[in-house]
Amino acid sequence: MGTANIFGFAAFNALSFQMIIGSPMILYAKSLDASATVLGIIAGMLPLMVIFQIPAARFVDTVGYKKFVLSGWSIRTIFAGLMVLVPLGAGFLPASSRLALMLLLLFLFNLSRGISSCGWLPWIASIIPASRRGHYLTREATMVNLASIVAFWLAAGILGAEPAPWQFSSLFLFSTVCAGISLLFLRRIPEEDRVETQERPPRPRLRQMLEQRPFRRLLSMNVVWALANGGAMTFLVAWLKSELDWHERSILMLTSATFVGALANQFLFSRYLDRFGSRPLLITGMVIWIGLLASWTSIAGGILIPWTPLVVILMLVFGMGGSMVNLANLRLAMLAVPEVGRSHYFAVFSVVSSVSLGLAPVMWGILVDAFSGFSRQVAIGFEWNAWSLLFAWLTLLFCLAFACSLRLEEPRSVRWDVLMRFLLRRSRVRYWLRPWSRATPRS
User: Which domains are delineated in the chain?
Assistant: First the structure.
């Protein structure tokens, strides 16, 4: 049927975009003395451009999902190629000019991607049966994570400790080549199955969409989640570079651990996604994120020492928790969106969460710059500074996102405690819990 080409596209697309919108781009901007606010703009640009899905949704059904996505991905590959030239201008352009040029190209790259992505989720939802979407999302995420690990190891090897401009150009050239290969796989993915007829009903209004309680609650949870998650990795990279003075190779190798954690989630939990539903995995992921950000707050405040093995473990947990939430959230969105008018529903879903995801790093960048140099010691030796304030705010937002996730509705979903009992019965963890249960007093 050709759907296997989706996974080839996912792999090469990940090899491409991790160089352009991932940690390598953040490190290149830091090499040009970009402030935290500028880093926030770079991190938020991709999700903010998704807002153009709203006007694009009016045309995507007429043009066709495949043609729409293919055109946008081709245009963004051109802008990726132009980024190769920016670091090579170090001999005759000041750092501020190179940063401005890169911001312009990133804007155009993300704009073309934001418009064309309007057709991606409806396209995939039309060719993947509902009973297999959890399996599809798991396999796609596996390919993305494996490719991302390769991308970051390659970037770490090329950049080294003190990278020269040509080394960044090499990464951007590699990104452009991988983007071109991903287009070959994209062309081989089957055309969508048309559901909406030629005499289409009027497109659903926003008020009509929000009247559906499952969709409304999912949107609310995504807004809070996006505000908490937006820019988290960006500012972790910036903190490791500016406060701990880690060099580029170490940061990129450390960042790759997040994708190892995501792969661990796919092997351990995601196989139960279609069987038990999205809510249990989503709630578990939220709990993990709360503990994770509380740990980063303690490290930034001086309570915990940034011991390298501890930081590696936290990065692994970062990837595992993020993978849990993303997989469950996407599958839940596919269930909450009706087939008729799905382009508009997916556009609203993507835009609302992506605008929040885009505004968040800009706000957090302004917060870090505003409190730069601030320091206040409190009890037990904890220090409030720009970074501990940032991570503390994110922890509170994740607590709110957890509360919102408890209110989500999903058909054919088991309760969270039922899933935990099942996993403990099927897992070897039960052998470790048996002495505890025997020692516990019984009424």
Answer: 5-190+206-418 (1.20.1250.20)
